[in-house]
Design goal:
alpha/beta; Spore Coat Polysaccharide Biosynthesis Protein SpsA, Chain A; about 45% helix; about 25% strand; globular
């Protein structure tokens, strides 16, 4: 029976961190919380519940989660976000795995709650996540803010019954703030990788995202909320590529400015040299 370390990263999560921690107590032999210098009651709540509490300035989603993995005492880890919690069925599945660990990693469905409604379609469900794994054979990777666990070649992955519950947001305003934040991070990461963004991509990508979520993945089955989720997901996509295109244009403008500045410097140097030449 391998012991399990539950690992959670936090930043001002006083409204949900207790729910998250209590949900893993029946399956985890240790709970580790890596906090990004919260200014609310998050540290107080975590210490009251007796977890291993570590403060670390935020390094980036991927970097912070990999740092958290290193703080665990055990190699088998269960990685959660503070706004997530195990369902009872998923807890029972994990306990069975502890008695008979067959794979290097396990994945399970995530059920998202959006503005008070559980969303059972669109890309929000089954929203499969790999969160239980042997840290010696995998780590967090992907592209911020869309981090994911990447296992080494040759490893095996099983699937567990039960849902990972995720409280995505409580209000529309909160979701719009999240869209703005995540689209900025995604645009910067794409810019760093040198991704191109022709004008057609700003139009095509969001339209296809809406079609995919609302029609292909049957978002219409969730009624009005399915429409809102599909529309907001398309808007996030639009924001990402609009911001990426802006970053690319700013870089081009900066290059033009530097080139013009360099030409001015060359001209000024030539003038100084001509002034030094003997006059006839």
């Amino acid at each position: 029976m391998p012991p399990i370390s539950a690992v959670i990263i936090t930043l001002n999560e006083e409204s949900c961190i207790e729910r998250c921690i209590r949900s893993v107590l029946t399956v985890a032999d240790e709970v580790v919380v890596v906090d990004s210098l919260s200014t609310d009651r998050t540290p107080e709540i975590c210490r009251k519940l007796g977890v291993k509490f570590i403060e670390q300035k935020f390094l980036g989603y991927i970097e912070q989660k990999n740092f958290a993995l290193e703080q665990a005492a055990f190699d088998h880890v269960l990685s959660l976000d503070a706004d997530e919690a195990l369902s009872e069925e998923l807890s029972r599945s994990i306990l069975k795995v502890k008695d008979n660990w067959k794979h290097d990693a396990y994945q399970f469905n995530r059920l998202n709650k959006f503005c008070g409604h559980w969303i059972h379609h669109t890309n929000y469900y089954p929203d499969r996540k790999l969160r239980l794994f042997d840290r010696r054979k995998g780590q967090w990777g992907g592209v911020n803010p869309h981090d994911k666990v990447i296992m080494d070649p040759g490893t095996t992955t099983g699937r567990l019954k039960g849902d990972l519950l995720h409280w995505l947001c409580e209000t529309y305003e909160e979701h719009i703030d999240t869209i703005n934040k995540f689209s900025t991070i995604a645009a910067r990461e794409a810019f760093k990788k040198g991704e191109k963004c022709p004008a057609w991509k700003v139009f095509y990508k969001p339209v296809w995202r809406f079609i995919q979520y609302y029609f292909v993945k049957r978002g219409f089955m969730d009624g009005y909320m399915g429409l809102v989720v599909s529309r907001n997901s398309a808007f996030l996509n639009f924001q990402k590529y609009a911001k990426l295109r802006n970053l690319i244009q700013l870089e081009k403008n900066n290059e033009k400015f530097l080139q013009a500045d360099e030409q001015v410097n060359i001209a000024q140097a030539e003038i100084r040299e001509s002034d030094k030449s003997p006059k006839e």
